[in-house]
Write a structure and sequence with these properties.
Blueprint: E1 6-9, H1 15-27, H2 40-43, H3 45-64, E2 72-77, H4 83-99, E3 106-112, H5 115-123, H6 128-132, E4 136-140, E5 149-150, E6 157-158, E7 167-172, E8 181-186, E9 189-198, H7 208-214, E10 216-223, H8 235-244, E11 248-252, H9 254-264, E12 271-277, E13 279-280, E14 295-297, E15 299-301, E16 304-305, H10 306-314, E17 319-321, E18 331-337, H11 345-357, H12 360-373, H13 379-388, H14 393-406, H15 412-427, H16 438-448, H17 452-465, H18 472-484, H19 488-501, H20 506-513
Parallel strand pairs: 2-3, 2-7, 3-4, 7-12, 13-16
Antiparallel strand pairs: 1-9, 5-6, 8-9, 8-11, 9-10, 12-18, 14-15, 17-18
Helix pairs in contact: 1-7, 3-4, 3-11, 13-15, 14-16, 16-17, 17-18, 18-19, 19-20
Protein name: Tetratricopeptide repeat protein
TPR repeats: 472-505
Keywords: Repeat, TPR repeat
Length: 516
Amino acid sequence: MTDNNQQRFRFSEAPIWELQRTYYEELGMKAWNNDQVPQYITSNPMIATAYAEMIFGFLRDRADRGDIIEPVTILELGAGAGRLGYHVLHKLCELRDDAGISLPPFRYVMTDLPMKNVTAWQQHPAMQSYIEQGLLDFGRFDAVHDTELNLVVSKNTIRPGDLKQPLLIVANYFFDGIPQELIYVGEGKIYESDVVIEFPEQHHKLKPAEALERMKLAYEHRREPRYEEDTYPYRDVIAHYQQELEDSHILFPEVGLNCLERLNRLSTSGFMLLTADKGDHRIDNWKFAEPPQLIYHGSFSLTANYHALQHVFEQRGALAMFPTQHYKNINVGCILMLEAPASYANTRLAYRQFIERFGPDEFFSMKEWVDRNIESMGLQQILSFWRLGGYDAEFFIQSAKRISNLLPEANDEEMLDIRAGIFKMWSSYYVMEQRYDLALDAGLVLFEMDMYEEAKFFLKESVDTDEDEPVPTVLYCLAICCYELGLDEEALEYTREALVLEPDHEEALALLKCFE
């Protein structure tokens, strides 16, 4: 180790946060390639549907108040790979169109710290129709400093007081990854819990992910009177911790609270927050809490202090909703920092139905079981879970082989449901830089069901978009589809292409004889 390899920092000012920023700014969208940084649990179609239902309820509540002229801005913080925003907007538009009722107009604004992500969203094929309709915009937003929103599509800037409707904020896996204070409560006193970092050798030459994982962290306390001063803006919640806690380390979201207050100033009507994270809203979960452990996944994350958010805004008249049951994987909350928040009946009922009764946490717990037991599931069970998850592409990829194995015993109705599910899945598929080819798997399942026209569409999509050389078997399947559909010239062309790549392909050779 080098000399002076240990340094002490206030937790919120430690270099781990700058490494976190650098990691995301350097990698951009590649941070989520093949789930290097987890995204599924907070970005799948099921949680997006729950959010869309709550936003729809909120729009209905605003309409019931007669506020249908001014647009509602839906602002997503830390939008990352963009998948959640796309699914929420897709489902919200479906709900709006199906309902056919008067609602205020809305626009969805996706933001993140790296400008690389903003550029990638703006260029993503799935986003284009929403951009053209004026329903989607983007911007870079720094949660630590920014006081306004600069939008890249409309070129507008949203400044304090510009919004007449409440701002609707979506923040998934956000509060756990931005700077936080670390305090220690002991004998009724508040201490700053500094972090002592032992740096690895040559740490300046390491990539951010490597440097983070190789650091060793320890904690030391020192008295910090500022938290106990009457001028400290969050004095009430700190006093609550002094009274209720002992020998406890508290991650305190001062930056997160400041961010919400800055965003609140953009609107003259308050805000609604939808948030999901590894976060605790029960004070009992902070009792005797040990120093935090960084969870590494390229970057790192911590446990979000939802109790502090709830306490602070409830003291200011907000209505906060968190599950009454204990969460296992993800905690989903809603804070209505609005005038007369209890009057937002449609919003509250949507939370009760889509989060409280059965929500994203319960769904993910079930998915963990399904992941382990997919090979013992029947077709009806697979179809039911696929439907429950909003025809999720990742689940289809995972279950395609099992579906294929069950097809010989499938009846016509089950095969028709598979077909319908594939098209519903494809209509809302958000392409990411992942390791699988959805079109290929969909095409092969349809091919095995003798649905040749549908199989041809997906198999051709796979061949046309795959940068690698086509697989001869896929070309042969395309040839069979064309042959069964009476498209002999196309069938012959695909057969010849397959044989160029694999001259001894027996099935292709046999098919070629049919054209002689």
